[in-house]
Amino acid sequence: MPPAMRVIIACYLAHLALEILPLYATPMARFELFTPSMVVIGLYGVAMSVALWRKQQWARVWLVLTTVMAAFLFGRLLWRGVPIAQWPDVAAGVLRIAVGAMLFLPSVRHWFAPRRA
């Protein structure tokens, strides 16, 4: 596994943590389905990380597509102005866009290339 893949997986998991953990300080955390839904989102992130680690091309494509959508939402967040209290959202957005961009690095593309027999 190239070092860039390790960085991608670490950044993706850090992005998930920065998206999920601050939500526990909001009033939404009092709802009974909040914790189970956050666990499902966390499991999704872990499953995507494992799929990347196992060279699943569909996971790479899916992350790029969802990163494009996340980049538009991040741009909208920045356009409206971000209060300093939302720094985890900004950090999560930057990490998510970085993950999407790093998936196009040459060593990563080689990692996902089909092996010839």
Describe the structure.
By secondary structure, the chain is mostly helical. 73% of the residues lie in helices and 0% in strands. It contains 5 helices and no strands. The chain has helices at residues 3-20, 34-53, 57-80, 87-102, 106-112. Helix 1 (3-20) runs antiparallel to helix 4 and helix 3 packs antiparallel against helix 4. The chain is globular, with a radius of gyration of 16 Å.
Q: Evaluate the radius of gyration.
A: 16 Å
Low-confidence stretches: none
Determine the fraction of residues in helical runs and give it as a percent range: over 70%
Calculate the terminal CA-CA distance, rounded to whole Å: 19 Å
Total DSSP helices:
5
The proportion of residues in beta strands is under 5%
- Rounded mean pLDDT is 86
Question: Summary?
Answer:
Helix content is 73%, strand content 0%. It is built from 5 helices and no strands.
Labels describing this entry:
117 residues, 5 helices, mainly alpha, globular
Please give the structural blueprint.
Blueprint: H1 3-20, H2 34-53, H3 57-80, H4 87-102, H5 106-112
Helix pairs in contact: 1-2, 1-4, 2-3, 3-4
